[in-house]
Amino acid sequence: MASFKWNLKTLPFGTQSINYHLDGDFFRDKEPVEVLSASVEVEVTMTRKTEVDYEMSMSCRGSLTIPCDRCLEAMTHAVDVTYQLSVRQEGDELDDSNEKVLIVPASWRELDVEPLVRDTVLLTVPIMHTHEEGECDQSMLSALQAHEALEERERDNAEAATDPRWEALRKLKNNN
Q1: Is there a domain that residue 111 lies in?
Q2: 115-139 core/surface letters (b: 16 or more CB in 10 A; e: else)
Q3: CA-CA distance, 47 to 16, in Å (whole number)?
């Protein structure tokens, strides 16, 4: 696989592109994430405009296999995203507070785009990721429903066993 590090100091003026293929190991190498497997094609294009100004574009297409939040079975999540970013070399500190402009220290020789690629792909995953209605594992859904029913019965029993003094207060509250 091609390196994710772009040498900014020696990058020629104009546009250069590199293609990457991301698999499940790519997502598991740095930090634990719930990506079971992956097949994502990424094209990173860098355009050097001046000695210190660059335009970067990422195009990510493919799919991730992630667990369903409802039934825990594997599900496929389509990835189709592009992200554009201006990069400027100036100052002494990294500043990534602006989502459209990345300021890197003037002393940096390289820009590692791996975290940018990883975040761009992972941000396509919705907070709640579930199968389409009717596609979840029915045996798991049945087990969840049985567990919910048991919890509800236990809660009802706990309420019935409440100190009678609280029940009197509850009646007062309900009358108002």
Answers
A1: yes
A2: ebbbebbbeeeeeeeebeeeebeee
A3: 6
The Cα 127–Cα 49 span in angstroms is: 37
Q: pLDDT of the chain along its 176 residues, tens only?
A: 578 999 988 999 999 999 999 998 898 877 767 889 999 999 999 999 999 999 999 999 999 999 998 888 899 999 999 999 999 999 899 888 988 999 999 999 999 999 999 999 999 998 988 877 777 767 776 666 666 655 666 666 666 666 677 777 777 878 86
| One-letter amino acid for residue 135 of the chain | E
The CA distance from 146 to 102, in Å, is: 51
Looking at the fold, whether 86 and 151 belong to one and the same domain comes out as no
Q: Is residue 130 part of a domain?
A: no
Q: Are 20 and 114 in contact (CB under 8 A)?
A: no
- Supply angle C-alpha 59, 63, 66, rounded to 5: 130
pTM of the prediction?
0.75
| Strand ranges inside 1-134, DSSP E | 5-7, 14-23, 37-48, 53-67, 74-89, 95-98, 101-104, 110-112
Judgement on whether residues 16 and 66 belong to the same structural domain of the protein = yes
Q: How many domains does the chain have?
A: 2
